[in-house]
Amino acid sequence: MIALAATGLEEGVWLRAERQTEGRGRQGRAWVSPPGNLYASTIVRVRPSDPPPATLALVVAVALEEAVGAYLPGKATLKWPNDLLIDGAKLSGVLLERAGSAVVIGVGVNLAHHPTDTDRVATSLAAHNVAIDPADFIETLAEAFARWVERWRGEGIDVVRRRWVACAHPAGTPLTARLPDGSTVDGLFEGLDAEGALILRLADGTRRVIHAGDVFLL
């Protein structure tokens, strides 16, 4: 998709793979890709008037929650910045990469299968008695994503931020953030700042704003 973005692929096009042989997760992690799950990518052409491109992580998160909710209402929650969870188990993964004027957004959703040998507990829609073909799910996701991109552009990041917080685990949820330098920060979830960064309330009562890192439920 990065190569296609460089050749002028227009915004709104989605590509879906039946299976990936070189899938990648965040920070270069391997991504196992059995058939039956969703492996898809799209691009957003960044305009000068758009909100910060990094906030597209929140846009795709709320679109995923909406798409999953069409098949399994009221079960999925969000964890910063764009993990979708069911009962604390990870359902999907998202990777954003910049390619010139485009942001390439890769999405993987466990529809039919989920790994059982990872450091994070995972789940799938099939594990919750939902059977959905990837070709059908991507249509639902593409429609939701297009609506949220339009709102992100027209109304700003705050409307997306509010929706994200409404779909997240409750305020006060204990979290640990593993930062890029290898250190960790423990605190209680206190929402997102105006630009979508994670706010943690630390044990001493101070607030810590997290702009990058891996976040885990405690």
Annotation keywords:
218 residues; alpha+beta; four-stranded antiparallel beta sheet; 24% helix
SSE blueprint:
Blueprint: H1 2-6, E1 14-17, E2 38-45, H2 56-69, E3 76-79, E4 83-86, E5 89-90, E6 92-99, E7 102-109, H3 134-155, H4 157-167, E8 174-178, E9 184-192, E10 198-201, E11 207-210, E12 214-217
Antiparallel strand pairs: 1-2, 2-7, 3-4, 4-5, 6-7, 8-9, 8-12, 9-10, 10-11
Distance between the termini: 35 Å
**Unreliable parts:** 25-29
Q: How many helix segments? A: 4
Secondary structure: helix percent: 10-25%
Strand content: 25-35%
Name the assembly state. Answer: single chain
Shape: globular
Class of secondary structure makeup? alpha+beta
Q: Provide the gyration radius in Å.
A: 17 Å
* Strand order, largest beta sheet: 11-10-9-8-12
Q: What is the β-strand count?
A: 12
The secondary-structure element order is HEEHEEEEEHHEEEEE
pLDDT averaged residue by residue: 92
Q: Give a short account of the largest sheet.
A: 5 strands, antiparallel
Please explain how this structure is put together.
The longest helix has 22 residues. The strands form three sheets. A five-stranded antiparallel beta sheet has the order 11-10-9-8-12, with no helix packed on it. The protein has a four-stranded antiparallel beta sheet with strand order 1-2-7-6. The chain is globular and about 50 Å long. It is built from four helices and twelve strands, in the order H-E-E-H-E-E-E-E-E-H-H-E-E-E-E-E. Helix 3 crosses helix 4. About 2% of the residues have low confidence. It starts with a helix and ends with a strand. Strand 3 and strand 4 form a beta hairpin. It is α+β, with helices and mostly antiparallel strands and 218 residues long.
